[in-house]
Amino acid sequence: MAIYSHSKLSTFEQCRLRYKYRHIDKIKVIETTIEAFLGKTVHNTLEWLYIQVKQNKLPTIDELINYYSNNWTENYKDSIKIVKQNFTTKDYFNKGIKFIIDYYFKHKPFNDNTLEVEKKIIIDLNKDGKYKIQGYIDRLVHDLEKDQLEIHDYKTANSLPTKEKIEKDRQLALYSIAIKELFGNKKIILIWHYLAHNQKIVSQRTNKQLEELKKEITELIDEIESTTKFPPNKTILCNWCEYKSICPLFAHQRKLCEFQNKNNLNQENSQTKENCNLNNSNQEQEPEIKNNKEEMLDIW
Ligand code: SF4
Question: Distance between CA 106 and CA 94 in Å, rounded?
Answer without folding.
Answer: 18
